[in-house]
Amino acid sequence: MMRLAVVQFRPALHAVHENLEFMVRTASDTDAHMIVFPELATSGYFFLSRDEVRVVAEPLTGPSITALRDVAERMDRVIVVGFPELDGDVVYNSAAIIVPGQEPRAYRKTHLFYKERHCFAEGNSGFFVVNIPRLDCNLGTMICYDWRFPEAARTLALRGADLIVCPSNLVTNVSHISMPSRALENKVYLAVANRTGTETRGDEELLFNGASAIYGFNGQRMAEADDHSDAVLITDIDPAATRKKSFNSINDIFADRRPEFYA
Amino acid sequence: MMRLAVVQFRPALHAVHENLEFMVRTASDTDAHMIVFPELATSGYFFLSRDEVRVVAEPLTGPSITALRDVAERMDRVIVVGFPELDGDVVYNSAAIIVPGQEPRAYRKTHLFYKERHCFAEGNSGFFVVNIPRLDCNLGTMICYDWRFPEAARTLALRGADLIVCPSNLVTNVSHISMPSRALENKVYLAVANRTGTETRGDEELLFNGASAIYGFNGQRMAEADDHSDAVLITDIDPAATRKKSFNSINDIFADRRPEFYA
Known about the structure:
2 copies of one chain form a homodimer.
Chain A: E1 2-8, H1 16-29, E2 34-36, H2 50-54, H3 63-75, E3 78-87, E4 90-98, E5 105-108, E6 129-132, E7 137-141, H4 150-158, E8 163-167, H5 175-186, E9 189-193, E10 196-201, E11 204-209, E12 213-215, E13 221-224, E14 231-237
Parallel strand pairs in A: 1-2, 2-3, 7-8, 8-9
Antiparallel strand pairs in A: 1-14, 3-4, 4-5, 6-7, 9-12, 10-11, 12-13
């Protein structure tokens, strides 16, 4: 069993110091084994160009992730947080997976949404699973619009994920239709950390609609936030319980797959 | 635009003549361009052995499908119906796709559920799409437990399906979590023709829970039956409307796929 926390808040655009201060405090104060923050939580979301986002981008070894890593080590907590990741000249829409005693890793968003294409490079990390022995948990990460592609969660589950976390900046509600299915069809836990608030650039306003949630491996909603408030959702989960993929004496949702017939 | 009908009823085990009579009458009386019946609708469901199911199995050219083909030709209606298909010595859990003016085809269930494995051979037809020029519709078929595998509907959609029909004999309610997502994630219509009633063999009773439904390509439920009554659901759909997979000036749910990162 482990205690999982999802943090919903309203990152301010460009305000890395302020956003980070909130997250360091929240990560320190939240009594959980793992804490998941939204997509691009250090920087805000609605950038318009590569030049603009480069100003707030940092490498995985930069001050923002280092500050969160310090909290993670001090409090013995896993932290997953979205941030604009600088790698040489290139910026990715990434999530840092910070595990005490391990080197942090970055998942780089595979499927870019809308004007992210003007700001970020397409992710090249692929979908990977981080084993966390102390929690007996295999952690997979995807980001926001990755939800739209059943292949994303499927790939993580086939690679052994018990729990998929999904830092998000969702601007529509349609993901609510698919998120429970992602959990059910793979028999994994799914934690969606979404943000709230609005960001306006020129004529265009984006409304981020909260409703962060933790889904159990049968697709049931175990915890859910409203669409506009700051919130910390906390749920106890049992990662090992996801590993038996059979559900009767004959069927097993992974063993029953027939990839030779899949496009 | 085309008019789609889904028929929910209670096939009687072994009673091919009676089941067929009901379907011939219903297919004749239902004013729709396409009529979808449940899985194994000619024969009932809960067989225990290959020998038992072989008694009611027929080839695609056998009397049952021929009788329905006669109705299809006479009334100019497409009919999809589940039946135990005999091919040489082997029996498949199949769905006949009967299109006026075309040779019927059989989709053979890819993922077998529970004791079907004692009765049927694993399907070898793969997932295919039938073009119906007169309806401007590309029709894909999957059967019941195939819903559990996102790869099934995905494969049909990538092969051009506008509409996926899913003859079913569902015995749990969990599919209700995933069916809307199958429609949404692929931007296709989805028609689930489930049966009602119970079948008991020895100590084991199967309860088939109806709730047949037609889903629009945004995952919305356009029509739904209750869990126990005979019903004919009829909905007008626009197959061509599913073909534009973009949803803003930048994103397209098929063009955005990155198969090189999928397991």
